[in-house]
């Protein structure tokens, strides 16, 4: 099950409702949770959960317990939103980023829909502090009973912002050359692997996504370097997202992510983006990918694995209720999709 933000936490604390939602989906081979903040300054959306405090870690325990009781496995997705944030979500502070370059787009903040502000460029020593926040997030995830963590390197959030030169114009050791721009990503991976070993760590990347105005002058060189460097950590997997139909409409630098980057990576690759049972089986049979993850189909089908096994019809997603409902009925569109046997 691919990571999916659902915005049902209360003041960054995971709830029993979230435990129920994830437990309903425990028959997925591996659940990756929604993106989860590693610090108060990494808060991109209202009602996102965090993993930087003991209270948050304790509350996550009810989620991991519920999934484990049903025989499932669950990784926490560690996340820093960087420039995709708004002062109303950050106690009035400016969002931070590699460089003072605003992302393209709008955000649903605590103050309603807003344009993304120009962020504050991080000082060099602050970058190391954020690496330590990821390390602490991994420690807290272990305390909370997670089987591992996935680093959120996709969609124009902080790790991606450092990697691509459209958002990184730094002149210190974190900017300029590809080696320098990949340094933050690799330092975070190293820190998190020191906590729990590479076999319990994954990372998700989206080399073709132009979401939030992301771009790079040479995406093939940038991402192939980063992916090749990841070999040394013997990770559980790298999770590569294919372009969405929207990306393809706007034009992407890399149309076929898996086939482009497979030659650079020796370990397991999870492929993601627009798969159904048929397409998923086909790609596994070719050996091009080792695993397939499903996002949207899991929103509406808690028993997706059973449905695939039985070739049963799928429930459709109601997109109106994905993040919340007009009356804040948090159950609706979240834990009320029917199982086959109901
Ligand atoms: C509602 C929703 C929330 C998402 N939130 C996240 C997220 O928190 N972290 C992430 O890496 N990807 C997120 N994604 C992207 C999915 O993980 C996945 O890459 C995408 O939906 C494509 O897979 P699919 O075609 O199987 O849905 C989200 C997608 C959806 C639909």
For the structure shown, list the relevant keywords.
342 residues, alpha/beta, TIM Barrel, two-stranded parallel sheet, 12 helices, globular, binds flavin mononucleotide
Q: What's a concise summary of this model?
A:
The chain has 342 residues and is an alpha/beta fold.
Q: Describe it for me?
A:
The protein is of the alpha/beta class and 342 residues long. The chain has a single domain, classed as Aldolase class I (TIM Barrel). It has twelve helices and eleven strands. The strands form three sheets. Strands 1-2-7-8-9-10-11 form a seven-stranded parallel β-sheet. It has a two-stranded parallel ribbon with strand order 3-6. Helix 1 packs parallel to helix 2 and helix 3 packs parallel to helix 6. The longest helix has 20 residues, at 124-143. Residues 2-5, 34-35, 77, 152, 154, 204, 241, 272-275, 294-296, 322 line the site of flavin mononucleotide.
Largest sheet: 7 strands, parallel
**Low-confidence blocks of residues:** none
Tally of DSSP helical segments:
12
Q: Could you state the CATH homologous superfamily?
A: Aldolase class I
The share of residues in helices is 25-40%
Average pLDDT score: 95
Query: What global shape is seen?
Result: globular
Distance between the termini: 22 Å
| Hetero ligands | flavin mononucleotide
Into which percentage range does the β-strand content fall? Answer: 5-15%
Classification by helices and strands = alpha/beta
